[in-house]
Amino acid sequence: xxxxxxxxxxxxxxxxxxxxxxxxxxxxxxxxxxxxxxxxxxxxxxxxxxxxxxxxxxxxxxxxxxxxxxxxxxxxxxxxxxxxxxxxxxxxxxxxxxxxxxxxxxxxxxxxxxxxxxxxxxxxxxxxxxxxxxxxxxxxxxxxxxxxxxxxxxxxxxxxxxxxxxxxxxxxxxxxxxxxxxxxxxxxxxxxxxxxxxxxxxxxxxxxxxxxxxxxxxxxxxxxxxxxxxxxxxxxxxxxx
Length: 241
Hints:
Number of strands: 2
Organism: Rotaria magnacalcarata
Pfam family, one: Dimer_Tnp_hAT
Protein name: HAT C-terminal dimerisation domain-containing protein
Helix content: 40-55%
InterPro entries: HATC_C_dom (IPR008906), RNaseH-like_sf (IPR012337)
Distance between the termini: 59 Å
Structural class: mainly alpha
Largest sheet: 2 strands, antiparallel
GO molecular function: protein dimerization activity
Radius of gyration: 30 Å
Strand order of the largest sheet: 1-2
């Protein structure tokens, strides 16, 4: 599912009209670009899955979509962590941590000791609490080594403890189960037709894939017979000339 957004954007970029293009090519590119935008509609899952791929999280292929994805992931994090009190900083728009004050157990200050009266007063201690935004920011700052494998499931397995809530989202969205019994049957029957993890493909599409697989040999024979027939007819026409 994480491939949808970047590949869609690549296709749209390829449809960008250039000055040196012919008028026909410009019309074709414009038509295809608008068609892709209107038909290939992105859903929240596409944004989130793209963001949760460690090599796609910065959205270099589609910078204008990054803020949307960031907002969706942040919202999902807040829902899952069930924080009771969330305060928004107008400057950084970040979630604050819970504050716990530890009482000072030192002896009362002697009023006759003028210097002691000038000592700094105890400050409240801010407890180190992991918040959704902190986890999100840590994920954004996390640097992926160039030599690391592109296996997204391996990445999240290795970093599950570091990004616990994000890992839960990955498990839920990257392994979408079959939607009903019919689609489940199609998955079992399709075998190697769909080799990637299950996606939200519709029943109609699977039926078409199964039809092609089951009738591939017959379709090849029909095509071969038709080609032979056309070739024979062409020879007959040439012989009559």
